[in-house]
Amino acid sequence: MRACLTLAAALTLVAPAIPAVATAPVSATQSIAVAAAAPDISLANTKAHLQQLQTIATNNGGTRRSTTAGYTASVNYVYDKLVAAGFSVVKQTCASGCTSGAGPNIIADWPGGGGDANTVYMLGAHLDSVTAGPGINDNGSGSSTILEIALTLAAQNPAMLNHARFGWWTDEEQGLNGSEYYVSTLSTTERAKIKGYFNFDMVASTNGGYFINRITSAIGQTVKAYYDSIGVQTEENTEGAGRSDDASFNSAGIQTSGVAAGASAIKTSAQATKWGGTAGASYDPCYHKACDTYPSNISDTVLDRAGDAAAYALWNYAVGTPASNDFSLSASPTSGSVSPGGSLTTTVSTALTNGSAQSISLTSTGTPSGVTVSFSPSTVTTGGSSTATITASASAAPGTYTITLTGTGTSATHSATYTLTVNGAPGCSQTNATDVTIPDNTTVESLITISGCAGNAGAGSTVEVHIVHTYIGDLVVSLIAPDGSVYTLSNRAGGSTDNIDTTYTVNLSSEVANGTWRLRVQDAASGDTGYVNSWTLNLAGSTPPACSGTNGTDVTVPDNTTVNSAITIAGCTGNAGSTSTVEVHIVHTYVGDLVVSLVAPDGSVYALRNRTGGSADNIDQTFTVNLSTEVRNGTWNLRVQDAASADTGYINSWTLTL
């Protein structure tokens, strides 16, 4: 949440939900009857998204500020999840009003299930953090909540009464800039279609409470009805008024509400009595600080209830009335790659969502020439599952395809999508010739999967690109490596010239060759459209990387504490050797206190030293270990336990050779 210049003297905000109030689904007898039963949003899945955002921040200087690589990685994480789930997703560049270098907004529309396109209900949250920290409560909590709701909507794929849209905003912490830009780009007609916007900013404060934005509005009363149904009292979000992205929509005349759990304001005694927690302390003690981390700065209870309240609102306004007997259908996994002549499987699962069970016949559409899908069994009863086997013949053309898996019941029909990549022949060069349309102000991707190419890519790797477009100065063209690294090929160059037919040379020597590579094309302006015609990736594979690694980062070893130092091995084939070595350098004033072990990626522990050496200083030793039962690739840890008091030290460095 953006910092406010002035705060009212008296603020009434939220406290953590200490009382254990049941969170059962709202019953049909409660005050607001939703068209279709709102789902219980998975707390575990929401927290998994938070863990990913924490990891992204940790790997990018401890922040996800809108102008940093941490924000870019956050955008790509959310974008990839939404695309895989079947959303129509746009990365919207903030062309004016944002901090220089700020990343894009993400706008995701759910195309499934129909619904009135002129009646839009929107959930939004800002994705950026302040510079000082990773922003896990502010606002990873809101971003992760609406991401999981979007993925749940896609998995259930219910009939839609109205249109559902989701937004993740850039540059909120610098002044609500991303959401203000989005609203400013809407025509009068498009603004009028948005009948309600729900904002989620800081929804898991550890000393928080239950605040609703504009609680007396019609849509605010709907959110309140959910909390009423589980016996939780709510208050108006006084502290957050005008300080988050709902203000951008409200100023444009769009009805708004949303949920918050409080920021830096102080919890009153009355609120502590009502919600639990600590009176006289701020709702979020880590507000805009480095300690806003996962999992320490998250209240599971407050977060769980916020997700269910948000789903309750969306299902109430956007989801249509289910069939008298209805079900959901999903596929897991939702994507995969196969070489010609091979096959893979996905599990198609059904679940009862209304009424009674029914017989469901499974079919597929959208399979390319040379690809077939078979189901075992081909008919299931609601609650059952089937294994879909996808087989590519030797003549199947390389490319990426969307296959629709459909369940037709006696009372309802639902579908799920599966993204299939057919590999080219094994080797270091592949082509994807499947056309991919590039609409205005949209980001699209075309995939190539490389297999059978040993080692890393070459320093002289090439990317041959053929894009048909009437104004290539609109386009940002990038190559995305399997590990997510971005290599920019063309950044809005070429002005009004038509088409890109260029071969780019890129140093990819730090990248493992095998894996799925993406050509990402962003149309960053209006007025001209086109399509990716084809592209070819030639990685000119090089010598396989050495199966060794060194971690030279110091790790303090306090008294009576266990610490780890990690090395990740990638690009090595097979198992480790029977004479693998672990070279250890530990600075310590009494090595007899130390237990030193190597922990393999599968968790197996290999003892190197066990409190030997007495009062000697330091360990500078190379250990030979039989690791022939262990797969080389993965994360290995040097684990050091100080098992006594009075002497301390640190891991200086260690080298693993497999």
Q: Could you characterize what this model shows?
A:
InterPro entries: Galactose-bd-like_sf, M28_fam, M28_SGAP-like, P_dom, Peptidase_M28. Keywords: Hydrolase, Metal-binding, Protease, Signal, Zinc. This is M28 family peptidase. Pfam families: P_proprotein, Peptidase_M28. Belongs to the peptidase M28 family. M28A subfamily. The protein is an alpha+beta fold. It has four domains: 256 residues, 3-Layer(aba) Sandwich (Aminopeptidase); 97 residues, Immunoglobulins (Immunoglobulin-like), CATH 2.60.40; 110 residues, Jelly Rolls; 110 residues, Galactose-binding domain-like (Jelly Rolls), CATH 2.60.120. 17% of the residues lie in helices and 36% in strands. The chain is built from nine helices and 35 strands. It has an eight-stranded mixed beta sheet with strand order 1-2-4-3-5-8-6-7, sandwiched between helices. Strands 10-17-16-12-14 form a five-stranded mixed beta sheet, with no helix packed on it. A hairpin with a 5-residue loop joins strand 22 and strand 23. The longest helix is centred in the N-terminal third of the chain and has 21 residues.
